[in-house]
C-alpha cells in the first residue's frame, strides 16, 4: 500500500475506536507537554543569557577594594592594563536621599559617582541629553543624570535596600515624579548642592531588560561625576569601598587584566590587600549550568512520561493485532507483503503519536502561560515544535515496532484460522 492509503486506513481505525485511541496518546501528550514546556523555557533562558552577554561588554571583570581610588591611580592602572581596556570606578551609593526642584521636595532615591566609562558595560538605557564626560570629572562639575522608568502595568521591584533608609512610598514618589516631569537641563538641590540635570537615563521595560538581575538598578538612582561624589562626601574616602569594573574588549585578555589589577591593588595598599576578581564569563557559565540542571530534571520527568506513553501504544498495538489477526490473514492471502503489514501498524501508531504531540504542545503552552515566571517574555521557536513532534513520532515508532514486526510474521494460513 502507498503511504496515503496507509494514513487513510490508520486514521479510520483511530476514529473507529475513539476511547482506545484517546487513552493511547494521552500519556504521549503528557510527555510532550513536559518536553515542550521545558524546551520553551530553556530556549528563552538561553536567549536571555545571550542578550545579557551582548550588552555586558566583552572581557568584563569586577573587583572590589576597601579603599577609595583617585584619578592619579586611575591613570596608573590604565597603563598597566591591556590596550583599549575600559576602567570604571564607583563608590557605594548614598541611600535615602531627597532633592528639591522648584520648592518641591522629592525623596526615595540613592546617588553615586561614576566615570564616563561606566556606560561601557551593561548600559541598557536610552540616553536623553548627554552623559558625564571627562571634563566633568576634571572640574568636579555639579551635574547629574537621573534614571527615568517607563509606565508599566506590572509593579517594578526597585526597593530591595530602601527600607533601611527610607520607605517604598518615597521611592515610588520619585519614580512617578521623574516620569511625569522632564528634568533635563533643570536644576535640583540635594546634599546642600545645586546640580544641573544633563541627562535622563530611560530604563527599559522589565520584560525587555537584557541585563542580569545583579546589573539592574534596585532603587531610583542619580549619577554624578566620580570626583564630585568625593568632593561633597569627603568623609567617605576613609570608610567605604570602591567597585572597579574592567572591560578589555577581548575575552582572551581578561586573565591578563585580572593579574594587572591584583598587582596594582597590592602595590597601592600592601600585601594584605586580597582582591577577588569576578569574571563575568563565570557568571554566564553558572547560569548555563543552572539552565542545564533544570533541563535535565524536567527532561527526566518527560522521559518517564514518554516511556509510559510508549508502553501504552505498544499494548494497544498488540491488542489491535490480536483483534485483527483474521484481517491480516486475508490481506496476506490477497498479496500483501510482510512489509505492508509492518508499515500498516507502524503508521497507525505514529498517527497516534502525532495526535499526542499536538495535544501535548497545547498542554505545554498552557503550562507556560500559567507556570512561567513571566509568560510575556516567552517565545516559541520552530525547532521546539519540530523536536516535540519528532520525539512523539520516534517514541511511537520504536514502541510499536516489535508488535508490528510480530504481526508481519504471521502466516496467512494460521491467521485465517484464528477466531
Describe this structure in words.
With 419 residues, the chain is α+β, with helices and mostly antiparallel strands. It is built from twelve helices and eleven strands. The strands form two sheets. Strands 3, 4, 5, 6, 7, 8 and 9 form a seven-stranded mixed β-sheet that branches. Strands 2-10-1-11 form a four-stranded antiparallel β-sheet. A hairpin with a 2-residue loop joins strand 7 (187-190) and strand 8. Helix 2 crosses helix 10 (338-371), helix 2 runs antiparallel to helix 11 (382-408) and helix 10 (338-371) runs antiparallel to helix 11 (382-408). The longest helix is centred in the C-terminal third of the chain and has 44 residues, at 280-323. The radius of gyration is 33 Å and the shape is elongated. The two termini are 26 Å apart.
Give Rg in angstroms: 33 Å
Mean pLDDT: 81
- The assigned structural class equals alpha+beta
Shape summary: elongated
Write the layout of secondary structure elements.
Elements: H1 3-16, H2 18-56, E1 60-65, H3 71-80, E2 86-90, E3 94-101, E4 104-114, E5 126-129, H4 134-139, E6 143-148, H5 168-180, E7 187-190, E8 193-202, E9 221-225, H6 226-232, E10 242-247, H7 254-269, E11 278-279, H8 280-323, H9 325-333, H10 338-371, H11 382-408, H12 412-417
Parallel strand pairs: 4-9, 6-8
Antiparallel strand pairs: 1-10, 1-11, 2-10, 3-4, 5-8, 6-9, 7-8
Amino acid at each position: 500500500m502507498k503511504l496515503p492509503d496507509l494514513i487513510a486506513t490508520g486514521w479510520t481505525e483511530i476514529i473507529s475506536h475513539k476511547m482506545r485511541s484517546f487513552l493511547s496518546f494521552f500519556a504521549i501528550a503528557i510527555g510532550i507537554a513536559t518536553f515542550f514546556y521545558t524546551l520553551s523555557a530553556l530556549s528563552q533562558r538561553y536567549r536571555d543569557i545571550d542578550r545579557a552577554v551582548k550588552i555586558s561588554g566583552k572581557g568584563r571583570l569586577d573587583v572590589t577594594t576597601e579603599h577609595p581610588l583617585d584619578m592619579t591611580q586611575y591613570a596608573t592602572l590604565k597603563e598597566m592594563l591591556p590596550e583599549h581596556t575600559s576602567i570604571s570606578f564607583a563608590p557605594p551609593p548614598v541611600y535615602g536621599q531627597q532633592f528639591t526642584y522648584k520648592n518641591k521636595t522629592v525623596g526615595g532615591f540613592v546617588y553615586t559617582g561614576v566615570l564616563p566609562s561606566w556606560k561601557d558595560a551593561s548600559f541598557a538605557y536610552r540616553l536623553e541629553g548627554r552623559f558625564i564626560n571627562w571634563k566633568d570629572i576634571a572640574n568636579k562639575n555639579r551635574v547629574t543624570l537621573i534614571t527615568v522608568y517607563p509606565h508599566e502595568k506590572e509593579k517594578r521591584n526597585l526597593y530591595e535596600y530602601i527600607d533601611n533608609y527610607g520607605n517604598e512610598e518615597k521611592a515610588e514618589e520619585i519614580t512617578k515624579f521623574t516620569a511625569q516631569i522632564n528634568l533635563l537641563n533643570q536644576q535640583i538641590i540635594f546634599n546642600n548642592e545645586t546640580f544641573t540635570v544633563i541627562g535622563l537615563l530611560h530604563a527599559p521595560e522589565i520584560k525587555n531588560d537584557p541585563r542580569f538581575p545583579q546589573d539592574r538598578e534596585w532603587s531610583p538612582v542619580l549619577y554624578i561625576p566620580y570626583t564630585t561624589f568625593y568632593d561633597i562626601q569627603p568623609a567617605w574616602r576613609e570608610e567605604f569601598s570602591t567597585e572597579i569594573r574592567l572591560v578589555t574588549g577581548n575575552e582572551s585578555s581578561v586573565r591578563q587584566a585580572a593579574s594587572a589589577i591584583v598587582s596594582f591593588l597590592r602595590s597601592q595598599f600592601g600585601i594584605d590587600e586580597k582582591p577577588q576578581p569576578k569574571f563575568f564569563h563565570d557568571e554566564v557559565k553558572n547560569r548555563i549550568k543552572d539552565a542545564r540542571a533544570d533541563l535535565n530534571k524536567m527532561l527526566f520527568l518527560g522521559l518517564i512520561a514518554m516511556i509510559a506513553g510508549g508502553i501504552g501504544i505498544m499494548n494497544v498495538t498488540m491488542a489491535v493485532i490480536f483483534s485483527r489477526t483474521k484481517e491480516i490473514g486475508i490481506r496476506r492471502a490477497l498479496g500483501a507483503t510482510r512489509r505492508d503489514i509492518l508499515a500498516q501498524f507502524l503508521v497507525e501508531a505514529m498517527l497516534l503519536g502525532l495526535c499526542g504531540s499536538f495535544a501535548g504542545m497545547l498542554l505545554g503552552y498552557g503550562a507556560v502561560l500559567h507556570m512561567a515566571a513571566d509568560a510575556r517574555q516567552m517565545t516559541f521557536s520552530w525547532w521546539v515544535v519540530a523536536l516535540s513532534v519528532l520525539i512523539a513520532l520516534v517514541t511511537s515508532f520504536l514502541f510499536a515496532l516489535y508488535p508490528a514486526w510480530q504481526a508481519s510474521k504471521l502466516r496467512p494460513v494460521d491467521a485465517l484460522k484464528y477466531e
